[in-house]
Amino acid sequence: MTTTASIRNKHTGELDSKLVFRPKSRGYFPKGLCLAASLLIIIMLAVILGNIVIGGYHIISWDFLSSPPENGMESGGIFPAIFGTVVLVILMTIAVIPIGVFTAIYLQEYTRPEAHITQLIRMAINNLAAVPSIVFGLFGLGFFIGFIGNGIDSIFYSSEGPVWGQPAILWASLTLAVLTLPIVIVSTEEALRTIPCELKEASYALGATKLQTIWRVILPQAMPGILTGAILAVSRGAGEVAPIMFTGAAYYLPYLPGALNDQFMELGYHIYVMATQSPDIEATKPILYGTVLVLLGLTFALNFMAILIRSRLRLRRINA
Amino acid sequence: MKRMKFKPKSKVHEFLGEKLIAINAFAALIAIVLIFAFIFKEAIPILTDPEIQQEASIDKMTFKQEFYEGRDPKWSWQPNSEVPKYSVLPLVIGTLKAALVAMLFAIPLGVGAAIFSAEFASRRWREIIKPAIEMLAGIPSVVLGFFALIVLATIMQDMFGFLFRLNAVTAGIALGLAVIPIVFTIAEDAMTSVPISLRDAGLALGANQWQVSLTVVLPAALPGIAAGVVLGFGRAIGETMIVLMASGNAAIVSASLTDSMRTISASIAAELAEVVFGSAHYNVLFFLGTLLFIFTFLTNLGGELAVTKLKRRLQGRLS
Questions:
Q1: CA-wise closest residue to B27 among A1, A100, A206, A200
Q2: Which domain CATH number covers A77?
Q3: Which residues of B touch A17 (CB under 8 A)?
Q4: Range of the structural domain that residue B120 is part of
Q5: Does B292 contact A13 at a Cβ distance shorter than 8 Å?
Q6: Average model confidence (pLDDT) for chain A?
Q7: I want to staple B221 with a disulfide (CB 3.0 to 4.6 A). Which of B134, B191, B246, B279 is the partner?
Q8: What is the Cα–Cα distance from A249 to B245, expressed in whole angstroms?
Q9: DSSP per residue over A203-234, as a string?
Q10: Domain range spanning residue A167?
Q11: Residue B230 domain-assigned?
Q12: pLDDT < 70 regions, chain A
């Protein structure tokens, strides 16, 4: 038997593999299996992305991005879907950011982590993150449209047809806001944890109250984390289809949404419609691939931005 | 440097601010309660309204029904036929079939890659595998559904000669792609939180690195890996767009994985848009939604509990 001596890297605590004297059995089999699993995942990812990029890149042009669908979606562009998606996620961000940020502040600054109320809220956040997206769709229909929308109609617009009690971009964006709430809370909390205690103490020492400290010291410091949360929420919201199917997305609209109670077209829903309802899938395919590439490019660009900001945040924590 | 001036503010101001933040913090809690309340509300007529119950009651949804006189009783989901049929069994079977394939596909890959990333991989490898998983997690499910429908289904049919182009295997594999990141992330997290002292003990006993990984670290992290599997299963049951697009949507009672199938979530997505508000069908779909909600709530609770317990135990050993 050979001796196993290991020397640890002083800074990272990891085993420095060069300094380990390995016995003869190197465990090629288990290592190989695990490597194969990793490789398979990477290959599948590459195949999916490669297929979409190759199928879609030649269709993307300024015309494609800026003109409406024509000919039963077999030609033309996807501008209304892009416009609808952008408006949708903007409305969603406006709704979700304040609620998410202040929830995170409450959890981090006002309560102890072991308090019952904190744990209850945390449990709710975790569960909210795991609720299937189709259930959010049902919720949006039952609560926002059925309860709030119909409620507004019966009070203010009783003589007319449905004004708010119908699928609309406002209800779809609020549904998505509920869905993305956990994302914003978690990344804001992560940022709040990196703020050094000395900053808060300094602020208190200058005579600031707790609220003033939060408003003028903690919030500005937490900005990158809030931004990360917003970006991740937008990336998630832009890709979700199930929650907006019954709350506001439309197959095809000849006009862009101009009011909060208008319906809208959306990229993900557009993909679903073209892929499953098209009478001639071969004719729709190029446009379909182009739309998928646009949606994928959008989500990946957003995720990449979030990763960049987050890694800078981590650096700050290490320096602190 | 920016000059900071803090005007002293009244106690009232401070008090109101704190209360507002505190009330706001209950948003997530309120949301989860509202979600359950408003979905369950629309499902209640199935339990109470005799008129609705004539079409769809718990009894009619669970057990074999004789829909036409003289014919054999059977389970059938045909809400739009002249005699509406609301047996949930075909949908439950479809959901479980797709989830089963997804888990068979995702557990070995997700856990294998997690072991590789946490134990064996060099830093360079880790910097490839982790972003790859993050990218996989970032692909919207409608895109995975699109890929399964347009590309994967054709490849699979050419390779295995499936009778039905869209079936549980194809949908399950696409679903597995959505589940892998969940299994990977939680399993990897569990393994990296195994304290170094445990590894050192293994090494001191003469095991080499991979033996320590498989005989010390892996068993210690097992509850965490199980949690990842449970949470992944919850996702597989609730995922909608992938199965809606790639499963063929045929609600049949069949044990075969190569038949077309329909899941609970896909039924809701496909049928809710055309359903009459307040009809039995409408209530049944909300009832299915309630089932999905309760199921994922329970899996999530179980998974969370396993993870917290594991972390506590591992930290206990460390001290």
A1: A100
A2: 1.10.3720.10
A3: 122
A4: 86-318
A5: no
A6: 86
A7: B191
A8: 17
A9: HHHTT--HHHHIIIIIHHHHHHHHHHHHHHHH
A10: 60-319
A11: yes
A12: 1-25, 72, 317-320
- Chain B neighbors of A300, CB-CB under 8 A: 135, 138
B214 neighbourhood in chain A, CB within 8 Å: 27, 30
Q: Given a cut of 50, is residue B17 above it in pLDDT?
A: yes
Q: What CA–CA distance (Å, rounded) separates B166 from B157?
A: 9
Any domain includes B219:
yes
Does A196 fall in a domain? Answer: yes
List pLDDT tens digits, range A300-312.
999 898 888 888 8
B205: amino acid identity, one letter? L
CA–CA gap between residue B242 and residue B249 (Å, rounded):
11
**Residue in B17, B42, B143 nearest the CB of A292:** B143
B39 domain-assigned: no
Q: What is the pLDDT of residues B226-282, one digit of tens each?
A: 999 999 999 999 999 999 999 888 877 887 888 888 999 999 999 988 888 888 889
- Residues in chain A closer than 8 A to B243 (CB atoms): none
Angle B221-B227-B228 from CA coordinates, rounded to 5°: 90
Q: Tell me: the pLDDT tens digits for A48-76?
A: 999 999 999 988 888 888 888 887 677 78
Residue with tokens 């401070």: B14
Answer yes or no: is A269 within a domain: yes
Residue A125 falls inside a structural domain: yes
A210:B286 CB<8 A: no
> Per the structure, how many domains does chain B have?
1
Classify residue A254: in a domain, yes or no: yes
Helices (H), A110-196: 116-130, 133-139, 150-156, 169-194
Cβ contact B236:B175 at 8 Å: yes
Half-sphere exposure in the Cβ direction for A100 (13 Å, CA): 35
Measure the CA–CA gap between A114 and B51, rounded to whole angstroms: 49
Total domains, chain A: 1
Minimum distance, in Å, between the CA of residue A22 and any CA atom of chain B = 7
The answer to the question of residue B182 being in a domain is: yes
pLDDT for res A83: 93
In this structure, are residues B209 and A15 in contact, taking their beta carbons and an 8 Å threshold? yes
Instruction: Catalogue the E-assigned strands of chain A.
Output: 69-70, 75-76
